Amino acid sequence: MKAPFLTLWGWPIGFGVLTCIGLIAALLGDGWWDLVSAVTLGAPVLACGWYCLKR
Fold first, then answer.
1. Which residues contact 5 (CB under 8 A, 6 or more apart)?
2. Any idea what DSSP says for residue 30?
3. Among residues 1, 17, 26, 42, which one has the fewest Cβ atoms lying within 10 Å of its Cβ?
4. What is the C-alpha to C-alpha distance for residues 15 and 10, in angstroms, rounded to an integer?
5. Which of 39, 45, 47, 46 lies closest to 21, judged by CA?
6. CA-to-CA distance for 6 and 17, rounded, in angstroms?
């Protein structure tokens, strides 16, 4: 039961966690926090763009 669950929901859960980390980092401060938030919020956008161009 564990393998089908992770196969289906692994990437969406990972992108959700990255998005939460990015939003919290954007609220916490400046400097390195800005870089962390940009990378973590940009990862789902890049993945969606890659899948769009793949088709």
1. none
2. S
3. 1
4. 9
5. 39
6. 15
pTM: predicted TM-score of the whole model, two decimal places = 0.79
Q: Which residues contact 51 (CB under 8 A, 6 or more apart)?
A: none
Phi, psi of 30 (to 5 degrees): -115, 180
Please name the amino acid found at residue 21: I
| Closest C-alpha to 42, from 18, 14, 9 | 18
| 44, two tokens | 């789902």
Amino acid letter, 14:
G
Plot region of 31 (φ>0 → left; ψ -120 to 50 → alpha; else → beta):
left
- Single-letter code of the amino acid located at 54: K
